[in-house]
Amino acid sequence: MEASAARAIPAKDYKSDYKPVWCPGCGDFSVLSSITKAFAELGLPREETAVISGIGCSSRIPAYTSVYGFHGVHGRALALATGLKVARPELTVVATGGDGDGFSIGGNHFLHAARRNADITYVVMDNQVYGMTKGQASPTTSPDWEKSKLTPHGTGVSPFQPLAIALASGANYIARGFSGDPNGVARLIAEAIQHPGFSLVQVLSPCVTFRPEQRDWKEITREATVPYTDDTGRAARRLMTDDGFNTGVLFKGNRPIYQPSLEQSSTTEDLERAFQV
Fold this sequence. Notes:
Elements: H1 28-42, E1 49-53, E2 68-71, H2 77-87, E3 92-98, H3 99-105, H4 107-116, E4 121-126, H5 162-169, E5 173-178, H6 182-194, E6 199-204, H7 217-220, E7 222-223, H8 232-240, E8 246-252, H9 268-274
Parallel strand pairs: 1-2, 1-3, 3-4, 4-6, 5-6, 7-8
Antiparallel strand pairs: 5-8
Helix pairs in contact: 1-6, 3-4, 4-5, 5-8
């Protein structure tokens, strides 16, 4: 990864003047730092970079950066990001969000964004809970978590497996990081941006307010001992037997990216004539 010497920008300059309002101890502070470090490492021009989000605690990230940003509606970040990249392929487009926004209401967009394989990067801060709505179980919550008032006896539902589903849907780059390792996450995000196609970076980002037991993640997460693979069958076997705490790059594919031609085929006058009665 070579930063552009001509456009070198320190990481702090990718942050806006708005101060994050996350709870003290939230892992998203660290992820924000990782994102700006990745941008600085790649020397991304701010006017050619966009961060897109949906709704949720982590979806506030566009406001905390100094690049172009769009805070969309719940679950629609990937639809917006894909549309922007297809219309403006010269831009670097990064979508950010959480496990609820991305895998519940946004689940269908997640599948098809991976399937289309437009050249965008999706950074998901996964804390296995809806923090903004005060502690509901999320798609990635384990079935025996009993701390939510809405599911006091656990969800009884198998958790969503985002990395395995991303692989099955056609994602070109799949990685997992831990917010307690901001430099490691920054490297994953930078590499994801550089890798062609749809890239997913799942970041385990503890919610110490509603899931204080996640403080233990710093003792559980570890760097994967097996190198990444470009073989989907091997990656599938690995992901389906993974306990969710191995970090690093897990899969790199080589599918062609989705970028339709932008040649003008009609004008606004043509559209108006088509709707004339």
